[in-house]
Amino acid sequence: MRYAIVSDIHANIAAWRNVLTDIADLRTDKIICLGDILGYGPDSIAVLESVYQYVDVTLQGNHDAAICRRMSTDSFCGLAAEAVSHSRATLAPAALQWMRSLPLTHAEAGFRCAHGDFSAPQEFHYIVEPADALPSWQTVTEQLLFVGHSHIPGIFVIGASGTPHFLPPCDFELEPGKRYIVNPGSVGYPRAGAGRSSYCIYDSDSNSVIFRELPFDSAGLRQALINTGMKDDLWLRQKEMLQKLPVLRDKVDFAKPVPVTDVGQQTAPPAPRQTTARPNRNSMVTATMLGIAALAGLFAVAGFMLHGKHSAMTHHASRLIVPDFELPVIAAYPLIPPDKNLLPPLPVSTSTPERFENWRYAIDNLNEQSFQTGLRDSETTLLVRHKNRHSFFMESPLVNLDGIKLQALRMRGRLRKHAGFDGTVLYQLVTYKRGHDGEPVQHKVDPFEMRTSRRKLTPPGAERDVRIKIPQSVSHARFRIEADFTGVLELEQPYLAVEN
After folding, report:
1. CB contact at 8 A, 78 and 84
2. pLDDT at 376
3. Are 473 and 440 in contact (CB under 8 A)?
4. For residue 311, what is the DSSP state?
5. Which positions ≥6 away from 238 have C-beta within 8 Å?
6. What is the mean pLDDT of the chain?
């Protein structure tokens, strides 16, 4: 028996159709959906009708439960709560009744399924860290368990040692003496890796699990969100840019002209018209840290304002910010546990140019400022080179602190000033509170000038390690670096963590 295990479709009809086609092509015997059919996406009716027609077993996820009023949306972010309201307004009573009837768990011979963990399925607890898997193994006896919810594909394994560990997605066969919790990832709203739809197939005859990964049309999904009046999704905007192909030629209208007659006479067919090519946004995304000056002609000139509801753009002749939109928000809970670094890693490659992914940065002069990755004490560093005196700006995505009982954040960083460096560097913690519309509004900026290190660093450096008290009203935070200098500045991986 071959089972297709899917989860977290989230009303993304384009992604779901791709996966459904792949499932049909692989001749699976049965489809099991682990929940969250709806939520986030705009295609509630189409997805729900398709799942009802083609999926053998469908479980209830937390978004589904919220839509049919089996749970509150108090813990949902703004986009998620809006999507719930949109689905409620568009679905027929029969749809809501069917969703309300969906079970929380499902068992077959040798395996069991749920949306979240098995210790309290109605609570939809996440399984993100290996320790999170223990309550489920203690609650049920099956060797193989399938869960969704986190959107992160992977495998939790426990063996004779009794110590659970996590493995990234990989095809495997079940081994005697080991137990497994498999997350197939998300079909419609992936949060890991390259952001592709993922699901898995379990073959009960060979006792094997294989993972599948497929792209989907993120631009089409984003346009569908806009067309239905829902808020634009910054994660989708970033993904759309990554999927953009370079525009090689101006657009030409190749359609045959429609004849237009006036008193029995036909007008001459118009010549093909041309339209101005859109900016090559793919080239914007693939800006590298080496040779960035060569991309100057591909970017729209822009400036950066540090104050206001969000960091905003303003026209300026020599200012460039990449990317020109907010990055997807990082959830501090439950996806990132306390004591873990909330900040994304610096680029890891030292041999080839890399995209400056997961961070925003702004520079003044494309011809005199560049970036390069380095390696020091087996850790990645970022070298910022200024031929003359210029300003440099770098910031993390917003970190959503909802769900964390924190009293303070710990901010730690270290930098090195190479020979010829002259200037100042500030590390900052920017905090936000929710406005009347629920969106984050900047509350406070805590700047910390980098002090000369007491340790002997080569080249000389500076560092800070500070504990910053956070009011309970603060909903978001971000880490930021502002510098004005000439020469070479080497930045080590910054650190931001929750302290209770």
Report:
1. no
2. 85
3. no
4. -
5. 323, 325, 327, 328
6. 83
The torsion of the CA quartet 166, 172, 173, 175, rounded to 10 degrees, works out to -30
Residue type, 34: L
Q: Which whole number is the average pLDDT over 71-98?
A: 91
- pLDDT, one tens digit per residue, over 327-339 is 888 888 776 666 6
Helix (H) or strand (E) holding 96: helix 93-100
Provide the 10 A C-beta neighbour count for residue 422.
11
Which helix (DSSP H) or strand (DSSP E) does residue 46 occupy?
A: helix 44-54
Per the CB < 8 A criterion, the answer to whether 201 and 31 are in contact is no
* Cα–Cα distance for residue pair 476/288, rounded to 1 Å: 29
Coil, helix or strand for 49?
Answer: helix
C-alpha span between 337 and 202 (Å, rounded): 30
Token pair listed for 299: 């970017």
CA separation (Å) from 302 to 168, 325, 480? 39, 12, 19
Per-residue b/e over 313-334, b at no fewer than 16 CB within 10 Å?
eeeeeebbbbbbbbbbbbbbbb
Residue 318: which of 215, 388, 376, 270 has the closest Cα? Answer: 388
Q: Which residues contact 307 (CB under 8 A, 6 or more apart)?
A: 442
